[in-house]
Amino acid sequence: MNIRAKIAAFLAVVIICPVFSATAAEKEQEAVVKSQSDIVLSGEYVAFDQIAEYVSERYLDSDLTKEDIKIMGISKLLENNEPALVELLKATLTSLDPYSDFFTAQEYKEYLNQINKTFYGIGIYLQQIDNYIEITGFVQEGGTAEQSGFKAGDKIVKVGGVDVVGKSVDEVRNMLVGELDTTIDVSVLRGTTEITITAKRVEVSQSTVSGGIMKGNIGYVMIKSFGMNTADEFFTIKNQLQENNVKKLILDLRDNPGGFVDAATNIAKMIVPKGKIVTVSYRDKADNVIEMSEVTDTPFDIIVLVNENTASSSEILSSAIQDSGVGKVLGTRTYGKAVVQRLYSVANGSMIIKLTTGQYLTRNGNEINGVGIEPDYPVTNYKKQIDTTNYTSFDFHNRYAVGQNGDSIKAAKERLKLLGYYSGDEENPVFDVALQEAIKSFQTTAGLSPDGVLDIATQVKLKEQFEKLETIVDRQLQTAYEKFGGKIEDLY
Known about the structure:
Elements: H1 3-13, E1 16-18, H2 24-28, H3 43-58, H4 66-78, H5 82-94, E2 101-103, H6 105-116, E3 118-121, E4 124-129, E5 132-138, H7 144-148, E6 155-159, E7 162-163, H8 169-176, E8 183-190, E9 193-200, E10 202-205, E11 209-214, E12 218-223, H9 230-243, E13 248-252, H10 261-271, E14 275-282, E15 289-293, E16 301-306, H11 313-324, E17 327-331, E18 339-346, E19 351-362, E20 377-378, E21 382-385, H12 407-418, H13 433-446, H14 456-467, E22 470-473, H15 475-483
Parallel strand pairs: 12-13, 13-16, 16-17, 17-20
Antiparallel strand pairs: 1-18, 2-19, 3-10, 4-5, 5-6, 6-7, 6-8, 8-9, 11-12, 14-15, 14-19, 18-19, 21-22
Helix pairs in contact: 1-4, 3-4, 9-10, 10-11, 12-14
C-alpha cells in the first residue's frame, strides 16, 4: 500500500456516520479545536511535532506535509495492532467526559444487553428445592429448551460435567450462560434416571420492570434500567394495578443507571400530569426537544425511591414526578447525570461511539448535572448486626461428619447459608454431602484444614464470622410504605 493509500485508510477509520438519523445541523457542525495554548503537551509530543516539521521541510519527498507525517506515524503504529487502536479510540472519547465512549462490536452488544437485561442461556426457569435446582418451566413454550428434551420437574445434577448438587440457583445459572449459539451438556435427574442433554444457548431477555400489590392495596414497581421494552413492561403492570383499584404507588428507581431516554419519557407520559416532562438542549438550539405529557387524570399518588446510583433517564422520570407534584421523592440525593448521549457508527458500521451531544433541564427548568435531585424526604438505609438469638447454638464439644445429625449440624447449616456457602435446607439436621462441601469451602477461606468435618475449631470460627454479619435495614422502603398507611410488620 502506498503512502497516500495508507493515509486514506487511516482517515477512513475516523469518518463518522450516524446509527440513528442525525440532524442537518449536526452534519454541518465543524469540530471545535482547542488552541495549543490550552493543552499541556508532553516533551515526547513536542518532539513528535518537531520531527514531523523537520521531515516536511527537509525530506526528499517534498509532497509530504507536517500533517501527513503525523498521520503516517500513527498509522504505522496502529497497523495490525488492534489493541492499540482500540485503546486510542477509547482514550479519544473518554477524554471528553465520563460518558462518551467507544465500543467494539462485541462491547456494544454487551452494552445493549446490559440495558435490556438480555443474556444467553438455555431458556429455562429454575428454583431451589432442597439440594437440587429444579426446572420449573420454559422461557418460550415449545422453544429450544423443550425441543432439546428438558421437562419441568427435571433436577439438574451436572453442568458441563461438574456436579452442581447443593449449589445455589445463581451459581447454576452462571454456569449455564455463555456465548450465543454455543452448547453445554446438562445432566438432569428425572425420577431415578440421570439423563444428559446437550443444550444450545439462545438469547434470553429478563424483564426490566417488576412489581405487584402490597398489603393495604399499595402498588410497588421496580425499574432496573430503561431498555427498549421497559415502557411496554411498565404499561402492563400499570394496567394490572389500575384493574385492582390501586391508587398509591411506590416506584423504586434505586440503583437504576438509566438507559434509553425515550423509555423514561414514555413512562412519564402515562403517570405525570399534563405539561412539560423534560427539555433536552443541543449545541444547535434548533435541535432542542421538549417532551410533553397529555395526562389529565393521573392514575397514582407516587413516592419514588432513589439513591446515589439513581442516574440519567431515571433522574428524568424522578424529576418529572417531583416537579409536577404528582409524587414525592424519598431516599438520598441522586447521581446527577443530566447529559444525553447519541450513538454513531464508525468503520462502516462495525463499531460504535457513544458521544455526549446534549443536556437536559427538568420540568421546572432545574439543571441537575453534577448536582442530582434532592429528595423531598431524605431517608438513609443503615446496617445493623444480625440478631443471633434466634439461631440454633453449637455445642462446642463434639465433631460431626457425613451421616450424623444434631443441633450443631443445624446451627452450621443456618450460618453457612447466610454466609453464602450453603444453599440447602437448613432445617434438616442431617449432615449431608452438600454441607460437607460448604464446610470445606468455609474452612479454606477461614484458614482451617479443609477436611469437611464440623470440628470444634470450625464451630468457633463459624460463630465468630456469623456474629460479624450485618444486614441492611431498608428504611427507605419502610418509610414510603408507612407514608401510604402501611405497617412495617406487614412488609416481612
